[in-house]
Structures are given as structure tokens and as C-alpha cells.
Amino acid sequence: MSVRHPIASSAFSASGASGLYEKSRPTYPTKAIFQILSCLPRNEVEVVEFGSGTGIFTRALLSSASPGQIKRLVAIEPAEGMRAGFEKSMKNWKELRINDVKRNNLDGLETVLPQIECCDGTFSDVGLSVKSASADLVVAAQAWHWTGKDISVHEKCMNEVFRLLKPGGYFALIWNLKDREFNEWVGKIRDCYEVYESGTPQYRLGYWKNLFKTNRFKSSFELISLSSSSVIDNRYTISTTKKSEHPNETKKDQDESSDRTVFKKNVDDSLDRSEPTLTIRRTDLISFEELYQRILSKSYITELDEESKVKLRSELESIWNEEVSKRQKENSDIQGKSFDEKYLSIEFPYVTHLYLMKKIDQ
């Protein structure tokens, strides 16, 4: 973000400091992480991460990298509470890595513990913490949508990405999203809380796609398609899920979802129809309480007054219980059994979108 969004700053500082964001948000699919890593050199990689939050993506990236691949990672995070959460979570992560090395009698601690910094800054100005043309990768996970709709803001942000990247470096954007294109009841869940967005520039609105309209993107970047041989590396196995498929989907589900196109799209593509480099569909086994905590960690929900939160929870619980009852009737293994719907974990559809862009050598 060029200008710090007031809701993002206050809400994320609160949820970052309290631990809500860290505890409730899901991590990212290994396939998506490997797709990013497969583009990078085998060692001495420098990474800049915009909007790092509490380090959920950071840890996924570092944990999946080959030994010694990433030398330095600079996290840029504008919310003070999130920076505090990042420092805490990364301290725990480092301790676990050190213990692993000691337990397995491995040499070369520096290969598993890259230099990690977390700094205040924005997408258009990271400050003096990173030199020009020093980064192999600039990445934003669950964050770039805060750039909003103003194309001049996108221009400034893309100029900063261009400045940071080495020639031939990569810019990656990744989002997790509840997959309303797969199941109507997921749409009901999203509709229930998205009415509270209060004008915040959410990923689903597609405003962030104005980056593709900037002069900087047009002149200096290319959006990578998965068929490009330049992003495939035999160190990793990459695969995709077609839009019409979903993990754990039964033949009955497929038959019933043949008209799934009538469901509302996950992301509005009216501004730009560029497709993700990689789309991964999956399901998370979660309870109602876990789902509610994830929703509560959203900036605009964190900011709600208690009365509105109670109302939202009641509406969500009603939708959840209706779906659980439906599944109970369809599943012979649980028919006739008594249980509290709130504590029952069910498969919840998610989709991950990865956009991978390469800085063109000039």
C-alpha cells in the first residue's frame, strides 16, 4: 500500500498483536510455494516480502526452500502489531530449526537459518532496508489488494517492485480464498460477512488488477503462464487442479455441480481478465469455531462492535448448521447420531491463486 489504509493499520495491529491472525489464518499449499521456489537460483537468494503479517507465508517459503537457497529475507510490514507478531513467530520458527539441526547432528547452521529482518514500510516505499536491484524475488501474500483501485498508486508500487528486483527477478502475488465457485453454501458464508467490508479494497473486488494496466508492468514485466518452461524446475513437482475439479469431490458432487458456472465468481475480473499462473483447489478440515475465528481475523470484521459480531456469528452458525444437517442426511456413517454441529469438523473448500511475474531484462 502507498498510503496506509486506516482499517488495515488498526485492525491488523490488533489481530497481529493478540495472536488472532497467527492462530486462525491458513497456510499456503506446498505446490504454490514450490512453483515460486522453482524460479529462483539454487543459492544466495534474496527475498523481499510485502505485507508479511505474522510470517505465515514467510515460514512456508523458508521451510520449503532447499538448504542454503535463501540467504536473506526482508519483510516489509506497515502494521506495528503485525511486526510484533512476526518477530514472535519467527523466533519460535528459528528455535525449531536449530533444534532440528542439533537433533540430526547436521553441519552448516547458516544453511537453514537465513538472515531475516522485519521493517516498517509500504509497498511503494520500503525505505533503506533493501538496495536497488538486489532482490531475486518480491512477493506479497494475502496483501497486494490493499493497493486499492487508484492506478497511480499501482504505478508507484510497481516502480518500487521494479527498483528492488534484479534483472530477470520474479514478482509473486498469492491469495487464499474461500471457494464460492465450488459450492453454493460457501457463497452464503461469504455473503454473510462480505456485507461488512465498508469499502475496503478486498481481493475479490479485483481492483488490484489495475497493476496490469500500469506503464511499468507493460514495459518491464511479463505474467508467467504455467506452460512456460522458464518456471519449471525438476527439483519440484508442480501440478494444477482444473476449475471444474476439487479435492475430495465425489462423482455425486460432480454430477450436481455441472451447472456450477451459475455461482458467483470468486474474483471480479471486469477490470482485467488475466488468469493466475497457478490455481490450486483444496479443502481444509475445520470446525465452526475455527471458521469463525478466520472470519474474525479479517480487518473489517475485527473492527466491528461486539453487537455486530454477535449478530454475524449467529447468522454464520445458522448457515453452518444447515449444511452439517444436509451432510448428515447424505452420509450413512453419521445418520441417526447425535452431535453438536459447532464442534463437528467438515471439509471446507478453498482456492489459492498465484500470479507470477518476471522482470524483463532491459
TrEMBL record:
<keyword id="KW-0489">Methyltransferase</keyword>
<dbReference type="GO" id="GO:0008757">
    <property type="term" value="F:S-adenosylmethionine-dependent methyltransferase activity"/>
</dbReference>
<protein>
    <submittedName>
        <fullName>S-adenosyl-L-methionine-dependent methyltransferase</fullName>
    </submittedName>
</protein>
<dbReference type="Pfam" id="PF08241">
    <property type="entry name" value="Methyltransf_11"/>
</dbReference>
<dbReference type="InterPro" id="IPR029063">
    <property type="entry name" value="SAM-dependent_MTases_sf"/>
</dbReference>
<feature type="compositionally biased region" description="Basic and acidic residues">
    <location>
        <begin position="242"/>
        <end position="261"/>
    </location>
</feature>
<keyword id="KW-0808">Transferase</keyword>
<dbReference type="InterPro" id="IPR050508">
    <property type="entry name" value="Methyltransf_Superfamily"/>
</dbReference>
<feature type="region of interest" description="Disordered">
    <location>
        <begin position="240"/>
        <end position="261"/>
    </location>
</feature>
<dbReference type="GO" id="GO:0032259">
    <property type="term" value="P:methylation"/>
</dbReference>
<feature type="domain" description="Methyltransferase type 11">
    <location>
        <begin position="49"/>
        <end position="172"/>
    </location>
</feature>
<dbReference type="InterPro" id="IPR013216">
    <property type="entry name" value="Methyltransf_11"/>
</dbReference>
